[in-house]
Design brief:
155 residues; mainly beta; Immunoglobulin-like; four-stranded antiparallel beta sheet; 8 strands; elongated; C2_dom; PI-PLC_fam; membrane; lipid metabolism; lipid degradation
């Protein structure tokens, strides 16, 4: 990493200005009914999915949000947007995890993925999800939109 203007070394714990804002919109999920048995998540009803969206990076950038729980839906539609202000987007990872809400036990795992923010491009994306072992599900996908805004003043 490069030294700062006063020859200082980068300190990730130091308070920094937000340089970039990432808006993440989670529209819909699909494919669980193809990759899982009808009774995998709930024995007597369709699953109750929700999505967690995290930024993992320097301490000031770390944040997490959660969509509403969509009850009894194999194809949940969330249509929710979350905004992340980032000070060091080059080191940030977007983590997406889908869980199935369970009233009486631990929530069931429905898939996850991690995407480097520096690799994201603005627009609509079909985001594949992976199991606990990192194996890609055949059909499970989220329809999402990524949008960036620069918070730096024009030169």
């Amino acid at each position: 990493m490069h030294k700062g203007p006063n020859n200082e070394v980068f300190d990730p714990r130091r308070h920094l200005m937000v340089t970039k804002t990432l808006k993440v919109k989670v529209y819909v999920g699909n494919g669980w009914h193809l990759d899982f048995s009808q009774t995998h998540f709930d024995s007597f009803s369709p699953p109750d999915f929700y999505t967690k969206v995290y930024i993992v990076g320097v301490p000031s950038d770390c944040a997490k949000y959660k969509t509403e729980i969509k009850n009894d839906e194999w194809i949940p539609v969330w249509d929710e947007e979350f905004t992340f202000g980032m000070t060091v987007p080059e080191l940030a990872i977007l983590r997406i995890e889908v869980r199935e809400y369970d009233r009486s036990d631990k929530d069931d795992f429905g898939g996850q993925t991690c995407l480097p923010v520096s690799e994201l491009r603005t627009g609509f994306r079909s985001v594949a999800l992976y199991d606990h072992k990192g194996e890609k599900y055949t059909s499970v996908r989220l329809l999402m939109r990524f949008q960036f805004e620069s918070n730096l003043a024009p030169a």
